[in-house]
């Protein structure tokens, strides 16, 4: 047999934005106050085991029947006359007692976020609370209207979150870091690191790095003091401390040792058409511009790979590698002086 539930609905107070903006804690005192003054005489004597009386503001968010039954069980186990559900996640007050069912907990009694208008109101209210919490933590957010931050994001004291930034998931922005115009998801931005106009997902960036503009990191681990410049993509790779890749490079499925320089236009060729392969580059290497490193491949510590080289075999530490077409120079008349030039 189902437990009898009597719901005492209090009139709504305030306008739409006000009621949507209330926190759970705002409901409990009002419900208790109304019960004590207006409804106490109507409920009558409390008789444990004969039903449940609920004092519920009409304008508060949805409270389920399961919530009420759980709270009533607590009331009875502790032999209390009344209990504030506001302490457990809602603002209703539940009393063990008798009575007939006056109203059931159905959706029309509650404010819903269906529709773009109400959703926008609720979203912006939650956004204000998230930013307020980050303010209290000491983060610097100059323009709250242009940033979008999940409530799971952590920003330490002194972290700067500048305009047009989106922070999602379990992202952490460490003290002194600056993030501007970037999307960062489930990633860590290290102390004093600067990120500008980047797309970063599932990555960890060490302290004192510069990332961007227009860099992309996916599943990357970047050490301290690194430079990941414009139009550089790092995917599934680990960069040691002090690695520099200033522009226009793809580093995929690789491990790069500390202090190595990756030249402009370098490509870690990790895909053979069927599966991905890994590349290991040692510490203190110099990889020149327009180099192709065809995986699987290992480049030893201190190696120098000349610009324009396509590397297909392992390179020993300290070696100088060059592999490109030999340049030839031949005399030629300027096109406009040739007798066979077209007119």
TrEMBL record:
GO molecular function: glucosamine-1-phosphate N-acetyltransferase activity; metal ion binding; UDP-N-acetylglucosamine diphosphorylase activity
Signal peptide start-end: none
Protein name: Uncharacterized protein
Organism domain of life: Bacteria
Region Disordered: start-end pairs: 323-343
InterPro entries with a match to the protein in the record: GlmU-like (IPR050065), GlmU_C_LbH (IPR038009), Hexapep_transf_CS (IPR018357), Trimer_LpxA-like_sf (IPR011004)
Function, in words: Catalyzes the last two sequential reactions in the de novo biosynthetic pathway for UDP-N-acetylglucosamine (UDP-GlcNAc). The C-terminal domain catalyzes the transfer of acetyl group from acetyl coenzyme A to glucosamine-1-phosphate (GlcN-1-P) to produce N-acetylglucosamine-1-phosphate (GlcNAc-1-P), which is converted into UDP-GlcNAc by the transfer of uridine 5-monophosphate (from uridine 5-triphosphate), a reaction catalyzed by the N-terminal domain.
Gene3D superfamilies cross-referenced by the UniProt entry: Hexapeptide repeat proteins (2.160.10.10)
UniProt catalytic activity: N-acetyl-alpha-D-glucosamine 1-phosphate + UTP + H(+) = UDP-N-acetyl-alpha-D-glucosamine + diphosphate; alpha-D-glucosamine 1-phosphate + acetyl-CoA = N-acetyl-alpha-D-glucosamine 1-phosphate + CoA + H(+)
GO biological processes: cell wall organization; peptidoglycan biosynthetic process; regulation of cell shape; UDP-N-acetylglucosamine biosynthetic process
Lineage: Bacteria, Bacillati, Bacillota, Clostridia, Eubacteriales
Required co-factors: Mg(2+)
Entry keywords, A to Z: Acyltransferase, Cell shape, Cell wall biogenesis/degradation, Cytoplasm, Magnesium, Metal-binding, Nucleotidyltransferase, Peptidoglycan synthesis, Repeat, Transferase
Bias type Basic and acidic residues, positions: 325-343
């Amino acid at each position: 047999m189902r437990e009898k539930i009597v719901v005492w609905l209090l009139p709504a107070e305030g306008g739409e934005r006000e009621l949507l903006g209330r926190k759970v804690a705002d409901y409990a005192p009002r419900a208790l106050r109304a019960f004590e003054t207006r409804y106490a005489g109507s409920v009558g004597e409390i008789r444990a085991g004969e039903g449940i009386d609920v004092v519920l503001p009409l304008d508060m968010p949805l409270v389920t029947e399961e919530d009420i039954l759980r709270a009533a069980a607590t009331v009875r186990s502790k032999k209390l006359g009344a209990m504030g559900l506001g302490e457990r996640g809602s603002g209703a007050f539940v009393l063990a007692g008798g009575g007939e069912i006056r109203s059931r907990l159905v959706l029309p009694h509650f404010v819903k976020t269906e529709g773009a208008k109400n959703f926008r109101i609720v979203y912006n209210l939650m956004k204000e609370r998230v930013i307020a919490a980050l303010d209290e933590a000491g983060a610097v957010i100059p323009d709250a209207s242009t940033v979008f931050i999940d409530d799971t994001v952590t920003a330490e004291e002194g972290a700067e979150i500048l305009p047009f930034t989106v922070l999602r998931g379990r992202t952490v922005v460490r003290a002194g870091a600056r993030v501007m115009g970037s999307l960062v998801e489930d990633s860590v931005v290290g102390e004093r690191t600067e990120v500008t106009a980047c797309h970063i997902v599932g990555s960890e960036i060490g302290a004192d790095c510069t990332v961007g503009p227009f860099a992309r990191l996916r599943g990357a681990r970047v050490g301290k003091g690194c430079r990941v410049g414009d139009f550089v993509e790092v995917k599934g790779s680990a960069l040691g401390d002090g690695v520099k890749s200033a522009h226009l490079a793809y580093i995929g499925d690789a491990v790069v040792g500390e202090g190595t320089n990756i030249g402009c236009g370098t490509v870690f060729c990790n895909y053979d058409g069927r599966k991905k392969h890994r590349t290991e580059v040692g510490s203190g290497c110099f990889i020149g511009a327009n180099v192709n490193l065809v995986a699987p491949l290992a480049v030893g510590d201190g190696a120098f790979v000349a610009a324009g080289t396509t590397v297909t075999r392992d390179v020993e530490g300290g070696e100088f590698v060059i592999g490109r077409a030999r340049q030839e120079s031949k005399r030629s008349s300027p096109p406009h002086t040739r007798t066979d030039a077209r007119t």
